[in-house]
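Quick start: what a row looks like.
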Amino acid sequence: MSSNRKAPVPTLGELRPVITAIAALADAFPALPGPVEIGRVVTRHTVALGISVDLHTTFADFEAWRTALGVDIAGVEHMPLATVQTLKAYGTFNGVPVVVTAYGPVYALAQAA
């Protein structure tokens, strides 16, 4: 039996803390690369309204986000595949969850260091 339930769409009022956090990030770290998305994010422990950053650029861009969020390098998830690898960091900014994911070729990780 299939369900036709749809996830509730957040209101602008519910998104206010996320929008405020993005504005504060832009003020504190104007050089951070985008794009960013706001909405529901899956953290290590829950699903919450937050900020999602998907980087298809360089791992150096991921490193800039990781540093800005204060995520310890030991907390980064590394998921290598045959030709692509993914890095994922979970952080918070102004109490709002932020999930940063970077994608790149296997050889690129050494170039970011």
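That is the whole record. The radius of gyration is 15 Å. Helices lie at 12-28, 59-69, 108-112.
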